[in-house]
Fold this protein.
Amino acid sequence: MALDSKIPQGHISEKWTNHKNNLKLVAPNNRPKIDVIVVGTGLAGASAAASLGEMGYNVKAFCFQDSPRRAHSIAAQGGINAAKNYQNDGDSTYRLFYDTIKGGDYRAREANVHRLAEVSANIIDQCVAQGVPFARDYGGLLDNRSFGGTQVQRTFYAAGQTGQQLLLGAYSALSRQIGLGNVKMYNRHEMLDLVQVDGKARGIIARNLITGELERHSAHAVIIATGGYGNVYFLSTNAMGSNVTAAWKIHKKGAHFANPCYVQIHPTCIPVHGTNQSKLTLMSESLRNSGRIWVPAKIEDAEAIRAGKLKPTQIAEEDRDYYLERRYPAFGNLVPRDVASRAAKERCDAGYGIEANDTNEGVYLDFASEIISKGKQAAYTQGDHNPSDAKIQELGKKWVEEKYGNLFTMYEKITDENPYETPMKIYPAVHYTMGGVWVDYNLMSSIPGCFVAGEANFSDHGANRLGASALMQGLADGYFVLPYTVSNYLADEIRTGKISTDSPEFVEAENAVRQSIDQFINNKGTKSVDYFHKKLGLIMWNKVGMARNEKGLTEAIEEIGKLREEFYNDVFVPGAANEFNQELEKALRVADFMELGQLMAKDALLRKESCGGHFREEYQDAEGETLRDDENFAYVAAWEYNGSDASKSVLHKEELKYEFIKIAARNYK
């Protein structure tokens, strides 16, 4: 199948406007005749369902949580980007476009990224109108802060809970449509297969997670907005329920899966503390605005800290290595996530890590300098031009508390250490996935009528996502892209009529799901689902993690294949199919992770370059920076499913052509 990205002609600044002007419309009187399914109710799904409901379509929305409010978008902390240039520091639509392309290491589709930058400003207006309580300065104007990979302040935020506030805004819009009857909400339902009729997406098979009942739901179009696949590593910053199942099911039905090897390792997470841990906790990237990252400059000091003989506050300033400031003076602590993560790994691998665990994986995020600086400023504004040290500390801590208080509280509750008094311990962890289902410019997959939004698609971030751009993409897709492009597709469906769920295609899909469930329920294995998930996670982290090489990737493909075979033979799923059964839910999800893990390793093995979140040890310069191969790998790797053995998947390439940005070596020095 040839890939047609459907990128419009014309200048980059006019593509989206001209495209919208030429899309087909569905008249208001015809919209109630058309059904749309939205799977997932995070920022992308909730905003899409609310928008389409507002337009008058019949929308069915599905989430496996007990409420859309529990979608993982709620966990986002730091902020949302928008090119409004409120700080008058040189920002613009083009600058956001350029930073995103550069941050993604020149592996994103140019037209999609510019559209994202264009509509970003509208998102803020939309959310303010919904009552989202963005932070404001003393005069009442919306405040901004910086994030990694930029030299401007374009990130809007609500303390350290921006995702929660944005999701509540989208949820309020969604709830209004539910109340009006335009959206029918299916909580505690999980999509387990896509149904195609005559080649088009026409519905889904969903499992009621309370009763275990399988249900058929039909529609004229299906939107998948189910987030990323970071939990393939078992330990990640994702909620434990986050999974790849909906995206993987449409992949198995013909939707290409693009760039699966692009995984974002977030540099500021609380380090792993034990083998029984179920997930990792993110500390917002916004903290890098105020915190300075360092390790001891002397290896004997690092050893003493790990042994508990020395405290970080006892390390003199001249004996600290602020390695990001040293290596990247132009951006310092605000380099992109992949750069910061690799730099932390390099220091820890060299023996300078400070966390006292078997791996010595940890660095400091220190707020002492910011507390002193802001304390002096606050005292000065109060008329005290010669404040005491105690006064400086008091006022500085108060400033930090107002800016980041909930994050500091969360850190102290988890670690039992006070980050106002002693530096935070952080280390990189799996966070976001840039890969996902391949979509064209209209966000439609290679299956007609099946659209994919937010983190579930691949389209906007290339090989590395800039901080605060996930929330931006999710809301851009749901509020400002899909209402146009889905309507364009549905314009040809107004005479189709109601789609029956009694067709052979629905019967066949339901039977296939039932067979898969019965296979697990009737399996007489001896080991739990988590046993296999953890083993998969260790393979993925050690061989398809922050650094990869040909030997490890080749081994990973083989090891995951053997593990998948053992999983099907020896997994034990207690309980029955027709009841509330969380172990069955996990088994079905881990089955998909097994296949995905192999494909990720395969994709990483074939991409013989280093770019963004994909770091091949064989392809780095003398200073440990990424070495891209633009001549051979400036393409999107879109994989076609060809059976559960991912080594047999078929590669399709979408060439990346940059007309309006010059490809260059990525430099943050």
Q: What stands out?
A: The radius of gyration is 25 Å. The domain at 508-630 is CATH 1.20.58.100 (Methane Monooxygenase Hydroxylase; Chain G, domain 1). The first helix runs from residue 15 to 22. The longest strand covers residues 424-433.
